[in-house]
């Protein structure tokens, strides 16, 4: 026999002997007691199906937790019964189904249940049957008479209402029974139920509201004024339009001083104080145009709180706004504001609605639930389509002109800008701002003279004037009182040299329906950068006015300005003014100008042109 064949047979025999030995050892160790140990590792390894099932169970528990914690189920009743043929049983020819109606914060739905399903739930509950309502018992002789069905319906309804009234985290069996998870998933609501889950800020708000209202204490003047204006809005319904207008002016440049807690109170109110927020006060049920006149200013103020042009901390405001639950949002009955053609509040209300839907990524089913009204849904769809078309047109225009597409993106303050704005006001800060490409917001223009603002804290004006640079310096220093709005007089208190002096400027401004005479004492310096460029700086000086001085003032203020004057041609000069709005009264005087409510800038430019 071939030696190779003998070697192969030997190896086969050897392997077979090893296999027999292994079988003997395994048979001796494999007992009922050791079987689960030997195969535990393999059996405990979940397959894909098991992992998916575990994930669904976890998601269901999260949903059930929110449902229980926030009392989302409002009512449960048995509204009807119907019979169906029973083809399996020989004892009766039909089965009775009890139709249960469930009302929630999101949806209302109905499901049929048989008596046997009720019975299984009753036997499985972790509650003593002695304390529950009497459960209808099975009869020895099966009967489905009208009297029996009616009695069972009444008893089963009491049983369900008892479970709803005592619903807690130990009764998830009840939630499985009414199939609420499937209904939420069917409508797409399970993705948005998270909005019932409060943020840390809202938890803090609830903790405060549940105790003494004295615990909510404003920390600054801006927060004090929030509560002041809310009381006014709640007390004087007929004056709400005017009050909203005052709020918009007052909080311009100061809304960022309000804490998240007070901002939430501004939006949704304070239940402990019985104080409504602006969302409740904008609720109007009717669709006639006349009823919506008062809410125009309210929606305008609401929208501006969420915009970076008005509120430097708009990102935080948008986050708080998006955390408002759908139930709270629906109190605004926003559909009544967006239906119809002639309402001036329509555009602002659509913008607010769109921002809320975008932030929470609401599905169509949720949007339909939010708006209720078919006309409102069509109006919103039309608005979204217009926004998409507008963006497409802008993209095409930018592409055609080879401009940077980034200019289309929504702008907001970057970290560098925030860092600069949070610095103490200094001349160096103004110089740094003048050299940076920041997000200046356009305010208005008059004959190529343009005004911008930076988050309501800085003003920039650009003046192209037809005169030599020497004349321009004189106009923006010695002759300033002849054209600058509200300026009564300018005097030199002390002259250091030809280029440096201590000056006092007098202004008169309207502040809260009264007129104030303001005095600004400053160090003024004219510095020649080169033959074609001059720099004028005005910084606060703490020097006191002489007691015998001819003009008296109501209040002293502080202002800081950087004026850059550059000769373009022999008779053409460009002047750029950067100004820090340091004084509160000065800020209140400039706010209506920035909000384009008074022609302050136009009047000043008309007088300036008369000097040329």
Automatic annotation (TrEMBL):
It comes from the Eukaryota. One of its GO terms (molecular function) is phosphatidylinositol binding. Pfam families: PX. Residues 76-215 form the PX domain. It comes from Paramecium tetraurelia. This is PX domain-containing protein. InterPro entries: PX_dom, PX_dom_sf.
């Amino acid at each position: 026999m071939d030696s190779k064949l003998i070697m192969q047979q030997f190896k086969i025999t050897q392997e077979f002997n090893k296999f027999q030995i292994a079988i003997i050892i395994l048979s001796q160790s494999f007992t009922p007691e050791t079987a689960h140990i030997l195969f535990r590792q393999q059996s405990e390894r979940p397959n894909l199906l098991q992992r998916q099932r575990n994930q669904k169970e976890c998601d269901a528990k999260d949903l059930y937790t929110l449902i229980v914690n926030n009392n989302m189920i409002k009512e449960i009743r048995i509204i009807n019964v119907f019979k169906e043929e029973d083809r399996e049983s020989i004892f009766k020819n039909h089965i009775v189904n009890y139709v249960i109606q469930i009302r929630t914060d999101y949806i209302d739905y109905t499901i049929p249940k048989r008596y046997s399903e009720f019975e299984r739930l009753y036997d499985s509950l972790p509650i003593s049957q002695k304390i529950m309502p009497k459960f209808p018992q099975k009869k020895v002789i099966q009967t489905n008479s009208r009297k029996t069905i009616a009695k069972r319906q009444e008893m089963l309804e009491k049983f369900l209402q008892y479970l709803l009234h005592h619903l807690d985290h130990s009764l998830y069996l009840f939630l499985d029974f009414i199939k609420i998870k499937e209904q939420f998933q069917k409508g797409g609501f399970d993705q948005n139920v998270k909005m019932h889950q409060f943020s840390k800020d809202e938890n803090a708000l609830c903790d405060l509201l549940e105790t003494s209202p004295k615990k909510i204490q404003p920390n600054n003047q801006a927060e004090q004024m929030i509560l002041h204006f809310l009381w006014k809005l709640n007390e004087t319904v007929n004056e709400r339009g005017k009050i909203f207008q005052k709020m918009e002016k007052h909080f311009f440049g100061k809304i960022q001083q309000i804490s998240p807690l007070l901002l939430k109170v501004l939006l949704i109110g304070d239940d402990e104080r019985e104080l409504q927020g602006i969302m409740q006060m904008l609720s109007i049920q009717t669709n006639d145009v006349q009823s919506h006149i008062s809410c125009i200013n309210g929606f305008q103020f609401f929208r501006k709180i969420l915009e970076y042009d008005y509120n430097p901390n708009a990102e935080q405001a948008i986050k708080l706004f998006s955390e408002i639950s759908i139930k709270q949002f629906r109190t605004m009955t926003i559909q009544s504001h967006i239906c119809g053609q002639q309402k001036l509040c329509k555009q602002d209300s659509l913008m607010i609605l769109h921002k809320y839907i975008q932030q929470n990524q609401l599905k169509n089913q949720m949007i339909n639930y939010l708006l209720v009204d078919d006309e409102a849904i069509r109006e919103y769809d039309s608005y979204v389509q217009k926004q998409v078309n507008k963006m497409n047109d802008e993209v095409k225009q930018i592409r055609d002109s080879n401009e940077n597409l980034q200019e289309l993106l929504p702008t907001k303050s970057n970290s560098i800008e925030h860092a600069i704005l949070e610095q103490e006001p200094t001349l160096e800060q103004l110089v740094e701002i003048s050299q940076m490409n920041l997000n200046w917001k356009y305010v208005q223009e008059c004959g190529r003279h343009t005004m911008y603002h930076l988050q309501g804290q800085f003003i920039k004006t650009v003046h192209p004037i037809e005169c030599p640079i020497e004349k321009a310096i004189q106009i923006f220093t010695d002759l300033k009182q002849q054209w600058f709005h509200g300026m009564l007089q300018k005097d030199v208190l002390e002259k250091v040299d030809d280029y440096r002096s201590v000056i006092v400027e007098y202004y008169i401004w309207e502040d809260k329906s009264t007129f104030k005479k303001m005095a600004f004492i400053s160090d003024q310096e004219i510095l020649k950068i080169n033959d074609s460029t001059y720099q004028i700086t005005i910084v606060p000086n703490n020097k006191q006015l002489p007691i015998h001085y001819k003009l008296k003032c109501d209040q002293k203020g502080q202002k800081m300005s950087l004026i850059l004057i550059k000769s373009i041609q022999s008779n053409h000069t460009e002047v750029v003014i950067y100004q820090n709005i340091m004084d509160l009264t000065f800020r209140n005087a400039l706010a209506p100008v920035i909000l384009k409510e008074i022609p302050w800038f136009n009047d000043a430019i008309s007088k300036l042109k008369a000097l040329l």
